[in-house]
Write a structure and sequence with these properties.
This protein has seven helices and four strands. With 132 residues, the chain is α+β, with helices and mostly antiparallel strands. It has one domain. Strand 3 and strand 4 form a beta hairpin. The chain is globular. The termini are far apart.
């Protein structure tokens, strides 16, 4: 178990190099309840210093969420916790309680995480690729 965070905020650790992740973090910041999140890129030294139990390889495979009590949730299990802390989208967290939702969310999250850079190329092509 992780050490307890001093604030009531959760710490969301994400792939800071991923364009989809960057857009998602921006969207979460816009929609969060007042100051609910602290965002840290997986690549930052601060993650290793504050959360040495978060392995970089694991962090690069799925988002990591450290709850205020120190509990670490990863990937699709973090999604309802993220949704609970958003203004208009918190009721969507209840969808994860439906029968079969765990299997579906795990499958979809794994596919999405494994393909996020390809998805980014489709939805957010870099300026260099547009010129070609």
């Amino acid at each position: 178990m992780a050490k307890k965070e001093k604030t009531g905020r959760v710490v969301l650790v994400y792939d800071g190099n991923c364009p989809v992740c960057q857009k998602t973090i921006a969207w979460i910041k816009e929609n969060q309840r007042k100051d609910s999140f602290e965002m840290l890129p997986c690549q930052s030294n601060e993650v290793h210093e504050r959360f040495p139990f978060i392995e970089k390889a694991v962090c690069m495979q799925a988002m990591q969420l450290v709850l205020p009590d120190g509990t670490l949730v990863s990937g699709e299990k973090a999604l309802p916790e993220v949704l609970k802390r958003l203004k208009r989208f918190s009721p969507a967290a209840d969808l994860f309680k439906l029968p079969g939702s765990e299997m579906l969310s795990r499958s979809f999250y794994r596919w999405f995480a494994d393909n996020r850079y390809h998805i980014a190329d489709v939805f957010f092509p870099s300026k260099d690729k547009k010129k070609k």
